[in-house]
Design goal:
The chain contains 12 helices and 16 strands. The protein is α/β, with parallel strands linked by helices. The mean pLDDT is about 95. Helix content is about 35%, strand content about 15%. Strand 5, helix 6 (about 135-145) and strand 6 (about 150) form a beta-alpha-beta unit. Pyridoxal-5'-phosphate (PLP) binds near residues 180 and 189.
Length: about 375
């Protein structure tokens, strides 16, 4: 493609750091992973930051830390990547799937309330594509029903609600480091929380259930049944080189997204999703809504411009049909609409304003 959808930010500095790690012989999780976690902790303004193998495993660890399992329910939006809802059944709990708002594409807060039962333990809202969630609404729900909020912030490093970065508002927050995300380690995830007890449990769980107060081989005590979800020094080295420039990378994304918004102003047939007025979108993905999305996608790709659907409407997939551990609650009209009309456009650090003008010009000829 002449204009790709994404382009990971891989510089000579990053390549040098990876070679340094390879030559050090210390390849598994270690000091580079710690440095990566600490830098991210500082950027996000959170108390605990744990690197794991993916956002999907991070979500699983979070639910296990909150002791959610068989007999419990979690509530997740229909318009999202499968991992958000799949994590319920992964830990043995039922995933109750609800609709989203048509304009922000984020979970419908009224639908959450309508789906809550005495078995509901957690809500897993998604700040989709980097679009911040309304924590005034979520905190009111949390207080009223005594449920946990586990934010699937896979796409939201750098997004803000009321000037506070995503990562500290939920009980536990999970970010993805997959290459579609603007900070990537190839595969990887990050868990953040302000709670010491959960952080210690999750750290132990991802380290085979080890008591992390004494990790010297002869003194090791395995306290719980755990697993291995560690992020290697090699992967962390890739992410660290991006974190050094995170403020610059983030502000460039926002600048480019705002430029798209300006270029689409008054273009009939292209709608821009709504962002909360008291929030800052991090634009992991820049999406627009168009009527004949599938045809436009084919035509844009034929012109050498890589475009993509937004994400998935889960209830339309076999894995998310009603069953013992899945309940689709209510009509999924908005999610189905977003699944049909959202179109993701190229957005990456090296994208220029000239190339954006070309994307917009070509899109207009497809309308
Ligand atoms: C909203 C959402 N949740 C979870 C995931 C899964 O992330 P990972 O690939 O790091 O497991 C993704 C991946 O795209 C996502 O977009």
């Amino acid at each position: 493609m002449n204009i790709p959808l994404i382009k990971p930010y891989i510089t000579q500095e990053i390549k040098d750091k990876v070679i340094e790690v390879l030559e050090s012989g210390y390849l598994t999780e270690g000091p580079v992973t710690r440095e990566f976690e600490n830098k991210l902790k500082e950027f996000l303004g959170v108390k605990h930051c744990l690197a794991v193998t993916s956002a999907t495993t991070g979500l699983e660890v979070a639910l296990r830390a909150l002791n959610i399992g068989a007999g419990d329910e979690i509530i997740a939006p229909d318009y999202t990547y499968p991992a958000t809802a799949a994590v319920g059944p992964i830990v043995g709990a039922k995933a109750v799937i609800v609709d989203v708002e048509k304009d922000t594409m984020n979970i419908d807060y009224d639908a959450i309330e309508a789906a809550i039962t005495p078995r509901t333990k957690a809500i897993i809202p998604v700040s989709l594509f980097g679009s911040p969630l309304d924590y005034d609404r979520l905190n009111a729900i949390k207080e009223k029903y005594g449920v946990y909020i586990v934010e699937d912030a896979a796409c939201s490093i750098g997004a803000e609600f009321k000037g506070v970065k995503v990562g500290s508002q939920a009980d536990i927050t999970i970010f993805s480091l997959h290459p579609r995300k603007f900070i990537t380690t190839g595969e990887g995830g990050i868990i953040t929380t302000q709670n010491d007890e959960w952080a210690n449990w999750m750290n132990s769980y991802k380290h085979f259930g080890m008591n992390m107060n004494n990790t010297a081989r002869e003194g090791v005590q395995f306290e719980i049944i755990g697993t291995n979800y560690k992020l290697s020094n090699i992967q962390a080295a890739v992410g660290l080189g991006q974190l050094h420039h995170i403020n610059k990378l983030l502000s460039r994304r926002i600048e480019l997204a705002n430029n798209y918004i300006k270029l689409f102003k008054n273009v009939e047939g292209v709608e821009i999703p709504r962002t909360l007025t008291n929030g800052q979108h991090s634009y992991q993905t820049f999406c627009v809504f168009v009527e004949d999305r599938d045809r436009i996608m084919v035509e844009m790709r034929a012109k050498g411009i890589e475009v993509q659907i937004g994400t998935y409407s889960l209830h339309q997939h076999n894995a998310f049909k009603n069953g013992p551990l899945i309940e689709v609650k209510g009509a999924m009209g908005n999610s189905s609409w977003c699944y049909k009309h959202a179109l993701a456009l190229p957005l990456y650090n090296d994208l220029t304003e000239e190339l954006q003008e070309k994307v917009v010009l070509e899109l207009k000829t497809c309308l």
